[in-house]
Amino acid sequence: MKKIITTKNAPAPIGPYNQAILTGNTLYISGQIAINPETGELETNELAQETKRVMENLKAILNEAEMDFENVIKTSIFISDMNNFAKINEVYSSYFDADTAPARETVEVANLPKFVNVEISAIAVKFPG
């Protein structure tokens, strides 16, 4: 059985998908871009702020599912320019403990929705106990 996870603290989907799906103890979070959920506006003027907005959107969805970044086991990072990797990684890494950070891949792509610089999706697991 799947449960749809939705929060007003992250941007509403802009297509035929949901913010996240919880099945069993596993949460699949759709790719997040830097849309401010309060204003609906993109925050792409500065790369660090853009990445922070993406991570805060992920955090809001995790919180709605009663999880946090410690529950994240895998992320996928899509960036429009690999030259931005270090700046994105600096913000991204501040949300994780280096010793327990999730598995991930980072891929440069030709284009992202709304021509943003970064999109991140995640898989999280609610651990027993």
UniProtKB/TrEMBL annotation:
One Pfam family, short name: Ribonuc_L-PSP
Full protein name: RidA family protein
The UniProt record lists the keyword Coiled coil: yes
Taxonomy, superkingdom: Bacteria
Family (UniProt): Belongs to the RutC family.
Keywords from the named record: Coiled coil
UniProt feature coiled coil, ranges: 48-75
